[in-house]
Amino acid sequence: MFNPTPAMAGWFGYPLELDDRLRLISEAGFKAVLLWWATSSAYEPPIPKKAETAAKHGLAVENAHLHFAGVNSLWEASEEGEHYAEELIGLIAEAGVYGVPRLVVHLTRTSTPPPFTDIGFSRFLRMIEVAEKVGVELAFENLKVIHPLYEMMRRVDSDRVGVCFDCGHNHYVCPETRICRDFAPRIKAVHLHDNDGTADSHLIPFDGNADWGVIRRELIDSAYTGAWSLEIEHPLTDKFGKALLPREKDPYFGMGPEEYLERAFAAHKRLIEGSF
């Protein structure tokens, strides 16, 4: 029976400690969570506490998002790139230690990343080798520039490597390209959120103008069998403290976290049922 697990990103825009966020996510009805996987970040406990906090609130860890602040340096012949590669390799190894089944990975950042280089590819191969050793899957996400994803998938043939389909990025960046369809056999994670086609605003599904009928059908037709995960953010702030939308454009202005998550869970249920 078609009934994917409802999952929610551990960060959804409200500046609360992780314990409070995961408690509210669980109380809203979600059964799994996406964690933020970084050495340190605001509102987050150390890595050993992350999976423990999820378990405390009865949430399975669907995946964790590897941090990406310095990812462009990986493609450059620099000490910064080498140090960053080693940091990410360490985080991948820790995912294996703490039972995180897969990590979502960015290949680039911004609209003008460095070109796809041999040194960058070799660093990602080292990450993949570690992931294979520790039993963690790597799901590379479609971003503002999509050709590195196609090139990486063309070059790498590993059961531990696949794609994180982000439908919001697909709708905003390249609606003429069907990422989920193109990589249907290799989808390992999903990020579900909405926008109006002009900004990456991470709205609750059905609050923008994405074609959810097409998205739903492509997911069902793919080989993906994991949780259907919302990666939504109330536009109070992102993980880096930046306001995502001006107040006058905030569709959730004045909404508390409980009401926001209730609305999100209802949208998720509607998406699963196809009642739209």
Brief summary of the model shown:
The protein has nine helices and eight strands. The protein has 276 residues and is of the alpha/beta class.
SSE inventory with pairings:
Layout: E1 6-9, H1 18-28, E2 32-37, H2 47-56, E3 60-66, H3 79-97, E4 102-105, H4 118-134, E5 137-141, H5 147-155, E6 161-166, H6 167-173, H7 179-182, E7 187-191, H8 212-221, E8 228-230, H9 257-273
Parallel strand pairs: 1-2, 1-8, 2-3, 3-4, 4-5, 5-6, 6-7
Helix pairs in contact: 3-4
How would you sum up this structure, described in words?
- The protein has one domain (6-273): TIM Barrel.
- 38% of the residues lie in helices and 14% in strands.
- It has nine helices and eight strands.
- An eight-stranded parallel β-sheet has the order 7-6-5-4-3-2-1-8.
- Strand 3, helix 3 and strand 4 form a beta-alpha-beta unit.
- Helix 3 packs parallel to helix 4 (118-134).
- It starts with 5 loop residues before the first strand and ends with a helix.
- The model has no long low-confidence stretch (mean pLDDT 94).
Q: What is the CATH architecture assignment?
A: Alpha-Beta Barrel
Q: What is the fold named in CATH at topology level?
A: TIM Barrel
What string, H for helix and E for strand, traces the elements in order? EHEHEHEHEHEHHEHEH
**The CATH class:** Alpha Beta
* Helix/sheet category: alpha/beta
Poorly predicted runs: none
Counted by DSSP, the helix tally is: 9
Radius of gyration: 18 Å
- The strands making up the biggest β-sheet line up spatially as 7-6-5-4-3-2-1-8
What general outline do the C-alpha atoms trace?
A: globular
Beta content: 5-15%
Question: Roughly how many Å apart are the termini?
Answer: 20 Å
Give the % helix. Answer: 25-40%
Q: How many domains?
A: 1
> Which whole number gives the mean pLDDT?
94
How many strands, what sense, and barrel or not for the largest sheet?
A: 8 strands, parallel
